[in-house]
Write a structure and sequence with these properties.
Layout (H helix, E strand, L loop, with lengths): L2 H25 L5 H35 L17 H14 L2
Helix pairs in contact: 1-2
Length: 100
């Protein structure tokens, strides 16, 4: 993963946690600010963990599709191959036969 992307994600997560902590402090004035910050941090960690799980599950699904004959995992929403793909495969097969 790119270092800049990780840094940007970390900064965005901290900013969101601070925003949630500020809102939580206003919503629950009797609760100590440290408790609100801990809850906000835990909430952000839970969201990041769920996001990571969704990314891993999506990549596993894409790999499954490719391993079982799929051309492009994003194309599985449609009922057939992309237009022109069969023609391109035939041309590629013809060129490989001609070069032998």
């Amino acid at each position: 993963m790119n270092g800049k992307l990780v840094l940007k994600s970390l900064i965005a997560s901290v900013a969101l946690a601070a925003l949630v902590a500020m809102a939580g402090a206003d919503l629950f004035p009797a609760t100590p600010i440290l408790t609100v910050i801990v809850y906000a941090g835990c909430g952000v960690l839970i969201v990041l963990a769920l996001l990571a799980m969704a990314i891993v599950a999506g990549q596993c699904w894409n790999q499954f599709g490719l391993n079982h004959g799929g051309t492009d995992p994003k194309w599985m929403w449609f009922g057939a191959e992309p237009p022109g793909l069969q023609k391109e495969r035939d041309e590629s097969a013809a060129r490989s036969r001609d070069t032998r």
